Amino acid sequence: MPPILQSARAWPRGVLCALALWAGGVAAQTDAHPQVPSVLKQWHVTYDVAKDGRASYTYTVLNQVALPSALEDLKSFAFSFSTGIQKGQMVEAYTLKQDGRRIEAPSGNYQTQVNDGRNGGAPLLSDRTRISVVFPDLAVGDSVGLTYRIDDQEAMFPGQFSVVHPFSPYAVHEDSQITIRAAKGLDLRFEAHGLQEQPETTEGDTTVRQWRYRNPQPHPWDEADDGVWRTDETPVLLVSSFADYAAIARAYG
Prior knowledge:
It is built from three helices and 17 strands. With 253 residues, it is mainly β. It has two domains: 1-33 and 46-53 and 156-253, no CATH class; 55-154, Immunoglobulin-like. The longest helix is centred in the first third of the chain and has 10 residues, at 13-22. The chain is globular.
């Protein structure tokens, strides 16, 4: 295992429970079929990574409301990005009704918040921009769908790229996948647990790697699950171009 990937060897189990709240809900304790407030019908993310470490991130999500308790959590969605070195956009957001009708979120349902300093100065604590949307006419049985994109304007660390994607075992995932499209010459290291890796392919000067995840029967949350999990105990993908901790230290200066 590459040393850099050991940096995320464990995290609190409550984090995985929190991940489930929007992405599928937390399973209730039942005998045979745990009921969840919502079902993640689709969760796809694609990273297009340039040789200099800049990346474009495209997320596509379709989340179905299964129980009334999920309405409050799923009626809105937000994401954020660094104002200084990234640009972001909500490509689409809509409600998919049970009868197949698709209702686009009207322009008035979007909001953009920018952390700014005074008189054009830089903000003291954060330069984040947050884009949020409220889904229209949402009811039990409907699904919320969205696609959003984040583009790096510059790499945080030139020539380097890293990302960690954990999946909550407490959420229903019907069709989830991560695709990494990286420029040839960018030396990436990968570690995956609980995911189905697809054969590596090439498209011109791009190497394509993909991992898929399904979890039709989520793990019911129990107090005994509280505590810390090792990374290899949960579904996760870790990706990094850093060779070791010394390389990280040098990048931070």
